[in-house]
Amino acid sequence: MVEITIRKRQREDAAFTQRKFFKKTARGKVIKVVRERYLRDDVSCGIEKCRECASTLESHLPFSGAVDHKLFPNGHFVLPDTNVFLAQMDLMESSFFRSPIILLQTVLEEVRHRSLPLYNRLKALMKLDEKRTWMFYNEFRLKHNFIHNRETAVVREVGESPNDRNDRAIRVGTAWYNTHISLTRPPIRGRPVPVLPTIVLLTDDVGNRLKAEKEKIPCSSVQQYYLSTGALTAGIKAGQLYQGHFNANQFNFLEGSVTVEAYSKPVLLIGRENMNRAVQGDIVTIEVFNEQEWKAPTDEVVDQESTLKNDDADESDEEGERIVIEEKAPRPEGLSRPISEKQPTGRVVGIIKRNWRAYVCHIDSTSLNSSTTTSLSQQTVFATPVSRLLPRIRMRTRQAPALLGQKILVTIDKWDITSRYPEGHFVRALGKVESKEAEQESLLLEFDVPYRPFGKAILDCLPAEGEQWVVPPKGAHIPAWRDREDLRPLNICSIDPPGCEDIDDALHARRLPNGNIEAGVHIADVSHFVLPDNPMDAEAAARGTTVYLVDKRIDMLPALLGTNLCSLRPFVERLAFSVIWELTPDAKIKKTRFTKSVIASKCAFTYEEAQIRKDDLNRQDDLTDSIRLLNTLAQKLKAGRMAAGALNLASPEVKIHLDSAESSDPIDVEQKELRETNSLVEEFMLLANISVAEKIQEAFPQTAVLRRHMPPPKANFERLQDILQKRRGIPLDVSSSGALAASLDKCIDPNEPAFNTLVRIMATRCMLSAEYFCSGSVPKDAFGHYGLASPIYTHFTSPIRRYADVLVHRQLAAAISYGTLHASLHSKTHVEHTLDVVNKRHRMAQMAGRASVEFYVGLALKARGERSATLRTGKVTEEAFVIRMFRNGINVFVSKLGIEGLVTFKRETRFDANNYTFVIPGSGQGGEDVVIAVFDKVTVSIEVEKDKNTQRGKVKMTLFKPIVDSI
Amino acid sequence: MMSLRIEILNEGGFRSDGRRQYELREITFDSTTQASSDGSARVTHGLTEVLVSVFGPREARVRSQTLHDRATIHVEASIAPLSTGDRRRRGRGDKRILELAAMIKATFEPVVQTSLYPRSQIDIFVQVLQQDGGVLQAAINATTIALINAGVPLTDYVCAVTGGAHAAAPMLDLTALEESDLPHMTVASMPRSGRLTLVSMETRLHIDRFEEILRLAGEAGAVIHKEMRAVVKERTKGLLEGMSIGLRVSKAAEEDAMVENE
Fold first, then answer.
1. Measured between CA atoms, how close is A36 to chain B, in angstroms?
2. What's the pLDDT score for residue A793?
3. Last residue of a domain, which of A145, A169, A200?
4. Per-residue model confidence (pLDDT) at position B222
5. Are residues A674 and A726 in the same domain?
6. A185 and A42 within one domain
7. Do both A525 and A642 map to the same domain?
8. Rounded to two decimals, what is the model's pTM?
9. A28 and A125 together in one domain
10. Is A136 exposed, middle or buried (0-12, 13-18, 19+ CB in 10 A)?
11. pLDDT reading at B138 higher than 80
């Protein structure tokens, strides 16, 4: 039988017991709410062996608190205020934080009002045994006697804001505890004076601390508190925090990674909470978890659009709760995963620098309330970025219906801690989706390619003669001829891809009387026209590189230079920078000479023409001999290079056939063909680059502009090694580039010639990308170029389209005492800074080029699909190789089109992660199981499907052979 | 929802107003309110306040409703617009008000010894002055006191208490906040005989909780009964004292007169 009592209220308490407040209803009516509360004296302080407070069976705070803190040798308890929990929940949850915590009811209620997710975390924290938390119901405590002159129930005073009232309640609570302890443990005669622990108010609010100090309440800021906690500082010193660039996973929007130097594998960030609102490219600080908590990356494709399609763009209160639920769901953990696949796992604890820019997006049509074009009401909608690496952006706009089906530019403004999506605003519309102009511009914007036309200040730096500029006639006093060699009589020719306008290299070779061979590489003398520190130079440095799209070229230098004055066209005299070697017939370098020169190219070949000319045995002229000579040398050079361990890498390259110049409708795609002459040019360019690199490194050891390719970490190859071993029984030796090259040569499938290329492509992806660097900022043993197996390398041969080459030209000119080096090239920081930009632009340009090809492949496929639809020849199918497996799909590579695609299965499959196989039960013709493994050749049907929502044309692949996977 | 952000019963065992599960709110009885009535009482349960005035037994006004063997009980209720925060005006025909009146009538018909007053009527006017949960219980408790004050013979006290259940935890004497969130019922019991005269449920209550709450409410009725009896006794004592003063005064006057006569 329970005891039923009536709570009596003292009349004089009326001020404490009634609480009045006004509430505004949804309809705007104001309601006065009166609530009462019953104050009591039986609220326990929760400290062990307290003689005043009734003890309960629940966990108690230790009698003398935590005694290991430097600032409080007598022992202490912490009493955090609300903001500590709101802002530093991670700290409070950390296992390093061991002090007993007194949690006031005021604080808990405030947390609950401010953030439900944090409140739930706090509740969970209270339940942890190791945390020693006591919840003190300070708002209900009042006692009428003479011992305690202060009690903890607090009434809001006139003119006091609710926040101030709560702060005061927390201060009063802290003071009460301290008094309570001193009163319940009075000194007893004959015994030593008892040591009293302190209750420390933990608050980051300076105003609150000042008031507390005035009231003589012990207090501390969080930083002050934990910086003096030995354990935590040790944690930071032990290097658990790292910095790096955040990379989102394009297959799974709930996963990202950060590469830090301390680990060979990138640090994995799983789940939205651990990614902590980082966006692709941000510089973040991360904390790495204990090794037990490391996880393997997911092998599942999680698409943001389909997973989160039910999210409402209008912010709602419950969003916080749903985050918690949803976060748990899509993470089935593969139990059978080998431990070796586990990666360091961690979470983002801070964002050092945002990398936000304008993103090309589509409006998500499902997030629109009303799509009538006349609607001018402000709506909150989702903008889905084109890049899969980015989260959807929430934005408010009045023109949403009009923007539907357009490509638009959106920038991110902020990302609140409570929000699942960043918020942004509309910048401008680019045009209709799939119109070429919009696609092209969006591509350039997406990869941050500067594409504005050159300004007047820049064009003013060009020679005044314009198109009419010619090499002045030879004369001792003509400045253009100063220190220039006259190489006009030589049989120089250029070999380039068809349609090339910016010819920046030309070659010659001739036999010398002593039996050796003289070979020369002549590079357009861009530095003669582009002088340091003028507007044109600045613009070129900012652009960094020329960007090649399928149907457009974005020049680094104004077209007058690129396609005319610097272009080594045939039959005209041009200024050049020449590297001339004396080589033995075995292609050993006897002598190297660098000189500025004047040349007159005798012919501009395409690779094909040169090849035909060389192979045509009837042609016996100097020029053809020159090509043949170069070719034999190149073969020897290549053999030498390969013996030294250079890699023969492959990347998918395709060529788009355009219908006609005007419409530029692609009609088909084919793979690029490689000829002997390609290799010829390549070998001599490599040789020139290496020779120049050696020269400028010798002349300017601190500031030489070089290029290196770092050896890839072994861990990068682990997966490929494992796949090759398990599927084909082929070992892959990655101990050095030579060993890798050798074992790549052995990766042959007699039935499948493309297999070797496939493995090479996959190996290439395991590698790091090459980069420019300043010789003074890197130790000398790190100069090496892994792919080329050369100890030193630079870029010298394409100054028209690469800015680094322009710098190299200037340095080389100074090295041969042609002129003085501009001061900026003596400054290490300046060179470093310039190269940073160039590296970034270079990367972006490559991606833009690839994206452009992809877009045209898409268009071509669409055209092909339409053609086959009219001809009723069935679906477009292509052969493809499986290159990667996910839990619910496979990644295939269509070598003929140079594209990759994702095939997700609709039917039930068994995925064997250890053997990289998929078993599709009972799907064979006789009902037997069909097995698909990595490297298998399959046939996929390819179609371009328009995403109804984003209007984005998407290449969609479905399995066609060995089974037809469709519903 | 407001209720989402307030805990009904927290882990320390406290309700949102600082009471524990089985603690009733402060109760006050005031019998001196309305002099013009034959008996009145103003009862508060926490912030709920009800004023009941009783007139009668007196001659029945409406002939058609008079019963020849007993008195009729006529209950009229009104809820003051100022009793709630949103100040809603309820007319006399409002269903809730009619229901409240009907429930009070049904509760007291078996308790009032009506057969002692044939062809007469007893008027009970219930006015709800403030609401914070438990209006019915307050009205019933106030009516009991008012009837006693009016000198209407009752077979027993009627003591009403609201009980509800939060998850599996029963609690007594709900505030408006709790009432809006929990299944609850009001039980009117007669503590001396242990019988119930009213059980009212407006929400669905799980059958497993029902029995427990019913029992608890009965026990809580006994607690309230004690309180009521103390109040009634106090008042009776006052009345008796008043009577004795009156007696003494008249006696003294008589004696004075006698002295004068002598």
1. 6
2. 93
3. A200
4. 92
5. no
6. yes
7. yes
8. 0.56
9. yes
10. buried
11. yes
Between strands A937-946 and A283-288, the pairing is unpaired
Distance between CA atoms of B262 and A958, rounded to whole angstroms?
A: 131
- Please check whether residue B85 lies inside any domain of the structure: yes
Q: Is A239 among the domain residues?
A: no
CB A648 within 8 A of CB A638: no
Q: How far, in Å, CA of A108 to CA of B170, rounded? A: 24
Check whether residue A423 and residue A473 sit in a common domain.
no
Nearest CB to A36; choose among B2, B12, B47: B47
pLDDT of residue B232: 93
Please check whether residues A425 and A468 belong to one and the same domain. no
Contact A140 B14 (CB under 8 A): yes
Range A702-730 average pLDDT: 85
Domain count, chain B: 1
- For residues A895 and A818, state if they share a domain: no
User: Which one of A433, A467, A492 terminates a domain?
Assistant: A433
Say yes or no to pLDDT of A657 above 70: no
A303 in a structural domain:
no
* Chain B residues in contact with chain A using a Cβ-Cβ cutoff of 8 Å: 2, 5, 7, 10-12, 14, 16-19, 21-27, 46-47, 85-86, 132, 172, 175, 177, 216, 219-220, 223-224, 227
Mean pLDDT of B166-175: 88
Contact A339/B at CB under 8 A:
no
**Picking from A689-703, A714-728, B51-65, which range would have the lowest pLDDT averaged per residue?**
A714-728
Residues of chain A with Cβ-Cβ distance to B5 below 8 Å are 112-113
> What is the predicted ipTM?
0.82
Residue B162: domain span: 27-261
**Measured between CA atoms, how close is A31 to chain B, in angstroms?**
5
Q: Rounded to the nearest 5°, which phi and psi values hold at A538? A: -60, -40
Q: Flag whether A321 is in a domain.
A: no
| Number of DSSP helices (H) and strands (E) in chain B, helices first | 4, 10
Question: Could you give the number of structural domains in chain A?
Answer: 5
Q: Which residues of B touch A38 (CB under 8 A)?
A: 17-19, 23, 25-26
Distance CA A155, CA A551 (A): 74
Cα R_g (chain A), whole angstroms: 36
Read off the DSSP letter of residue A874.
Answer: -
Residues A234-293 pLDDT 10s: 444 455 677 778 888 877 778 888 887 777 778 888 888 888 888 888 888 788 887 777
Q: Is residue A451 part of a domain?
A: no
A638 CB neighbour count, 10 Å cutoff: 18
Q: Domain of A402?
A: 358-433
Contact B12 A137 (CB under 8 A): yes
**Rounded average pLDDT over B243-251:** 80
Q: Please tell me which of the candidates B14, B27, B85 has its beta carbon nearest to residue A33.
A: B85
